[in-house]
Specification:
This protein is mostly helical. It has eleven helices and no strands. It is about 80% helix and about 0% strand. The longest helix has 26 residues. This is Probable membrane transporter protein.
């Protein structure tokens, strides 16, 4: 794999990756979607494609902490409806990675995130939140779950950027803050874990990347604790605004990088 080892990094590069790992922990327990900044940092320090393999185990560590924190708030009917579509998206993303270069990956994901952020803002201004997460039981709700699920699986496979897509879906489905965090925690733990064999098969995870992960994963824990402290101090409206803002910033970063 074309990547740097732990010993190839200088102090500033390691500090940048450590901050990105801390931000992963914060995003998993506070503002989902904010880890798109982590994605950009990893891609700036490491080769872009290889960075996705290094970042994946760190994301899983954050997912485990989020599940331990919000496990009582997950909405399983929503999760069961999403998983088949997400699986299809992961397969499509794997095929895409076989031929796409870094530029195609960044442009595709950035454009999707900005488009979906715009659609979400427009929908919420026009009709407001849909109120209850069981909206997925309607025909329109099922269609929306499938479309977001495929895009979420695709984006999480090719760039670990599924967080903003699923954040927008959960907001559009009317989830409140704690239900949002609990449902997304289980969702990403299951999805990211299922991606491991695909990433290893593509050569994105190997012994060198795991050694770097072992050094960086320690920084996920304080980030998660900081996020848990902060989430009780963020009201629902600000929470939604931060999620959408993080999505827009992440999309722009991918397009202009």
């Amino acid at each position: 794999m074309n990547t740097m080892t732990l010993w190839d990094l200088n102090a500033w590069e390691f500090a940048a990756l450590a901050f990105a790992a801390l931000l992963v922990g914060f995003s998993k327990t506070a503002v989902s979607g904010a880890n798109t900044v982590s994605l950009a940092i990893f891609a700036a320090v490491l080769p872009a494609r290889a960075s996705t393999g290094v970042l994946l185990p760190i994301l899983i560590a954050g997912d485990l902490l989020a599940v331990l924190t919000y496990r009582r708030h997950a909405h399983w009917p929503t999760l069961w409806r999403l998983f088949p579509a997400v699986a299809a998206g992961v397969v499509v993303g794997t095929v895409f990675l076989m031929w796409a270069d870094d530029g195609a990956v960044r442009t595709s994901i950035g454009a999707i995130l900005l488009l979906m952020a715009g659609v979400t803002v427009w929908r919420r201004r026009k009709a407001g939140a849909e109120g209850e997460p069981d909206a997925v039981t309607t025909r329109a709700g099922r269609a929306k779950a499938r479309s977001y699920g495929v895009l979420g699986g695709f984006t999480t496979m090719v760039a670990n950027a599924g967080g903003p897509v699923m954040s927008l879906y959960l907001l559009s489905a009317g989830f409140r803050k704690m239900g949002f965090l609990g449902t997304s925690a289980f969702f990403f733990l299951i999805v990211n874990t299922s991606k491991l064999p695909f990433s290893a098969g593509l050569g994105l995870i190997d012994a060198r990347s795991l050694l770097l992960d072992a050094a960086l994963v320690l920084f996920v824990v304080p980030g998660a604790l900081l996020g848990r402290w902060a989430v009780d101090r963020i009201d629902q409206r600000l929470f939604e605004q931060l999620v959408i803002a993080a999505t827009v910033v992440g999309g722009l970063q991918l397009l202009v990088r």
